[in-house]
């Protein structure tokens, strides 16, 4: 019985981890365009266009209006002006539908930055940011990327705890600006 329980626990741990490892610094960021919401309004986000103006901070989050994702969005909203002053574009992305993200963009993001919908997981999978859990399919893991204007990933941070994502991506953008 203990052996069956141990096997079940090991399988559950495997299923609860990211399906793929996150992309690494030096990798070319997959280019995408996505339907997004900015302050409750429709917005089309184009990574190619955003990279023309400077680095992009792209962060993936599991589910709008959950405790961790709301706290993370608030932190990114508080830091949005600092990212902008450094020439960086900020975008969040989840598998949530656009209607949910319209509300999330005003309530959690304070209208400071767009959040993109990827319900079919095309972009999430391209960035190796898919998370599959027992009983729940189709969500993003919590991963933050900083993408340089040349399209290369210069920083990747994967941690399900939202606490360090803003601090770490801000430091990466500052380091990129110093180069």
CATH superfamily: Glutaredoxin
Secondary-structure element pattern, one letter each:
HEEHEHEHEHEEEEH
Rounded to an integer, what's the Rg over CA atoms? 16 Å
The proportion of strand residues reads: 25-35%
- Enumerate the spans where pLDDT stays under 50 for 5 or more consecutive residues: 1-21
| CATH topological fold name | Glutaredoxin
The name of the CATH architecture is: 3-Layer(aba) Sandwich
User: How many domains is the backbone divided into?
Assistant: 1
Principal-axis shape: globular
Strand order of the biggest β-sheet: 2-1-5-4-3-8-9
What is the arithmetic mean of pLDDT?
Answer: 88
Q: Return the structural class.
A: alpha+beta
Report the strand count: 9
Helix content: 25-40%
Q: Regarding CATH, which class?
A: Alpha Beta
C-alpha end-to-end distance: 58 Å
Task: Provide a count of the helices.
Answer: 6
Tell me the major beta sheet: 7 strands, mixed
Q: Any overview of this molecule?
A:
The protein has 179 residues and is an alpha+beta fold. The protein has one domain: 3-Layer(aba) Sandwich (Glutaredoxin). Helices cover 37% and strands 26% of the residues. Strands 2-1-5-4-3-8-9 form a 7-stranded mixed β-sheet. Strands 6-7 form a two-stranded antiparallel ribbon. A hairpin with a 5-residue loop joins β8 and β9.
């Amino acid at each position: 019985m203990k052996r069956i329980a141990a096997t079940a626990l090991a399988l559950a741990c495997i299923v609860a981890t990211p399906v793929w490892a996150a992309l690494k610094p030096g990798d070319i960021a997959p280019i995408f365009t996505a339907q997004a919401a900015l302050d409750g309004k429709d917005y089309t986000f184009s990574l190619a266009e955003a990279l023309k103006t400077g680095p992009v901070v792209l962060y993936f989050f599991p589910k709008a209006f959950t405790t961790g994702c709301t706290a993370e969005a608030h932190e990114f909203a508080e830091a949005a002006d600092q990212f902008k002053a450094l020439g960086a574009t900020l975008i969040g992305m989840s598998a949530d539908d656009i209607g949910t993200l319209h509300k999330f963009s005003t309530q959690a993001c304070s209208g400071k930055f767009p959040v993109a919908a990827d319900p079919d997981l095309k972009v999430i999978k391209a960035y190796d940011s898919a998370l599959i859990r027992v009983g729940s399919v189709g969500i993003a893991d919590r991963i933050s990327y900083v993408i340089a204007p040349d399209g290369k990933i210069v920083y990747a941070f994967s941690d399900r705890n939202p606490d360090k994502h803003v601090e770490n991506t801000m430091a990466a953008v500052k380091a990129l600006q110093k180069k």
